[in-house]
Amino acid sequence: MSIEQYFPFKEYYPYQLEAIFKINTSLFNNNKKFFILEAPTGSGKSAIAYTIGMQAINEFINNKEEEDQSNCIICTKTKNLQMQYITSGFKNTEHIWSSTNYPCAYFEEEWNVHYGRGMCLGAQHCPKSNICKYLIQKNRFTKAKIGITNYHYFFNARTKANVLVLDEAHSIDKTLCDVHEIEFSEKLIKLIYDKLKRNSYGNDGETEIIKLLKKTVKSKTENETLNNLHNLMDIMVTTFDIFESKIKEEFDDIKDALIHGSTKALKRGSDLSSVQKSLNLFINKINDCQNSTTQWVISKQDEKSISLKPINGMEFFKLMIVDVKKILFMSATICGFNQFSQELNLDKSKTDTLETPATIPVVNRRILVTNTGYLTYKTRTAVLPLFIKKIDELIDKLTTNWTNKMRGIIHTISYANANEIVKKSKYKKQMIVPENHDLLDVDKFMKNNINKIIVSPSILEGIDLKGDFSRFQIFIKVPFASLGDNWVKKRMESNKDWYARDTILKIVQGAGRSIRSKDDWAHTFILDSNINRLFRDYQYMFPKWFLEAVSFI
Fold first, then answer.
1. Ranges of the chain with pLDDT below 70
2. What is the per-residue pLDDT for 67?
3. Positive or negative CA dihedral for 186, 188, 191, 193?
4. pLDDT (tens digit, 9 = 90+) per residue, 367-417?
5. Rounded CA gap, 341 and 346, in Å?
6. Cβ within 8 Å of residue 196, ≥6 positions away
7. Cα–Cα distance list, 230 to 129, 157, 387, 437 (Å)
8. pLDDT on residue 80
9. What gap in Å lies between CA 236 and CA 208, rounded to an integer?
């Protein structure tokens, strides 16, 4: 069957069919393992992913090595992006969420039981395993021609597939680093021991663990801190393993009572599940760290807590794809094919790449650099008033040209900058700064503030400000990651190009928040003159479609 017959729609976007043919030829005719596609918003990447996934079925038909191995999995960054695939109407697909999204078929919902966790009796022992919603959906997902899920599920479930499509692929490395980060704090340790004591498991090891944590955060050198951290992890795993074993034994003892619905056993099982979840979180993360060959660095530290984080995610990525035969990476913002490949340790001889042009006209997505000044920590006091004045001038022009279309977003990089703008701008009554809790549901926040200018330090990814939700956006500062963050500093020392690429990713991602289709439009303004250095030294990392929209005013 010709690959065009797998395409889910009647018409192609520009460059879409060309991309499909190149990916198909590379992966299935030229026997490459990796293909990296950089295609801007509006390119129809989801349809490309689906078509390649369907073609993969022919390539690997009757070649599923194990029952729990999928033909093709499309994996994306967030549940919202996963929902976009699910609601696209693609045939022959099934999706899956983590088990916490599926109520238990045996225990009542009030006991908060989910497959593979806490009180779950398991497929062999549960009288209703045949109607377990999670197991049913997992079976459908695995047997479907194409499965659709998110990174969080894929990382944790260690799902196998012949072909893997990774959408929003630019975020893989950072996501892997973030999910493996371990926080050690007096608060978390005391919470665990409070649960243990409430459930009659005592406080063995608590004093020693807290004492060593205090010693660790007061260490005078980085080597001393890391040595103390490794000692702390050894003690925690040894101690928590003992508790975890005892909890498992107690679960075995009350299993029959749980099956027969004893209220006493259910209450006890629910309490034990909560303790077990807290213990397992630490045990699993510490084991990943102790078994790792990657360098780990201190990412956060204060008087009562300290966090440890891998310097890159390539080791964990390798484990994640051990059974995968072909991988398609897709993003609007790869921002440097070589740098991306290095971060994930991809074999260049097995990798092909393609950057497609934009389908959205340049006039609809202009990037306008004003060179208002160099905004840094040292110059902030003197320069920020000039930036606020420039913001007001730009909004003056925008409101004159676009009556009743003043809505937009101002990217400030810090709350201090955001609050100063809202305090001093003549448009302050039309502005709003989202709080941390607002960012938990950004879509809801945006809908509730439809007539406001959003002034935010952190909304650079994950939202669609389509249409009149946003007709302009202003970067007051180039979003360099803070070198006060030890992890950022160490990562930059190990790879200076990473630091530049991380910044460019944020700019290009942020610039795409307000233009979501070929008929949409918005203007992006960059005020900070530091952008010139990136254009000069790292122009090759910017997508061509982004650079063609840049002009200086």
1. 1, 61-70, 401-406, 439-440, 442-443, 460, 462
2. 52
3. negative
4. 999 999 999 989 999 999 999 999 999 999 888 766 555 688 999 999 999
5. 5
6. 202, 203, 243, 275
7. 41, 27, 47, 34
8. 80
9. 10
Spatial separation of the C-alpha atoms in residues 521 and 361, rounded to whole Å: 9
pLDDT for 394 equals 94
Query: What structural domains does the chain harbor?
Result: 3-178+312-355 (3.40.50.300), 181-310 (1.10.275), 362-552 (3.40.50.300)
Query: Token pair 């702390």 is at which residue?
Result: 232
| pLDDT tens per residue across span 221-237 | 999 999 999 999 999 99
431 bridge partner residues? 453
Can you give the length of the chain in residues?
553
The pLDDT score that the predictor gives to residue 218 is: 95
Alpha carbons 463 and 474: distance in angstroms, whole number: 16
pTM for the full predicted model: 0.92
DSSP 162-226: EEEEETTGGGHHHHHHHHH-EEEEHHHHHHHHHHHHHTT---TTHHHHHHHHHHHHT-SSHHHHH
Please measure the distance between the N-terminal and C-terminal CA atoms of the chain and give it in whole angstroms.
Answer: 52
* Token representation of residue 469: 């939700």
How much helix, strand and coil, in percent to the nearest 5, is found in the chain?
50, 15, 35
What is the model's pLDDT at position 434?
87
Q: What is the DSSP string of 370-427?
A: EEEE---TTTHHHHHHHHHHHHHHHHHHHHHHSTT---EEEE-SSHHHHHHHHHH-TT
Residue 499 contacts by C-beta under 8 Å, 6 or more apart in sequence?
A: 480, 481, 488, 491, 492
DSSP, collapsed to helix, strand or coil, labels residue 299 as strand
